[in-house]
Amino acid sequence: MEFLESQLSGYGEGGVGFEKTLVVHMEFLESQLLDMMRTLVVHMEFLELQLSNTFKLMKQEGLVNDHFTFVYSLKRNIEDHFYVEIIAEFCSVIQDGLKLLTQIMNTGSLNYNLMKEYVYKVKGSSLSFGACRLAEAFADIERAIDADSKEGCLEALKRAQRQFSALEEKLHGCLQLERRLVILATEGTNDK
Questions:
Q1: Burial class (CB in 10 A: 0-12, 13-18, 19+), 101
Q2: Which of 1, 26, 49, 182 is deepest in the core (most CB within 10 A)?
Q3: Cα separation of 70 and 114, whole Å?
Q4: CA 78 → CA 3, 70, 87, 173, distances in Å?
Q5: What CATH number is given to the structural domain containing 44?
Q6: pLDDT greater at residue 34 or residue 51
């Protein structure tokens, strides 16, 4: 308190000069904060536009359908990290399924029932995620299993691996954009 009084006493009666200086500094800081918030909003809008364009491109390429954008929209109702987490979980499920199917294919005799179990899982995950082309590749494996065709299973599995690789590359780009959006959103809420 003594420090404040000594500072105010340097500005004459009642510290009026100090109050004016304080108001000017506060207005300056408020102006800087508003500029930072505007910049943050512009960056977020740019990233959202990039993400939207990536989604449109993925849809045009036939990798995903409208359900993919619906899944993305769920983050507004759940939490910002939802989409980042769901991409990682989806990729993990598909990678595990492809690995297990490959292992089964590499055995001497095929266990079609076990293969079908894994195919149902990854096909269902693909459909739920909106990865329509990948789901169709898994449906091809299912048809080859129903036909008891080892060669057909192998060809369809290779197609599924290629489809997943193409999708995974695009998802990686989406993930990078989404992580940047989450970071900016967090910074924006911390500044308020």
A1: buried
A2: 182
A3: 31
A4: 49, 13, 15, 22
A5: 1.20.120.160
A6: 51
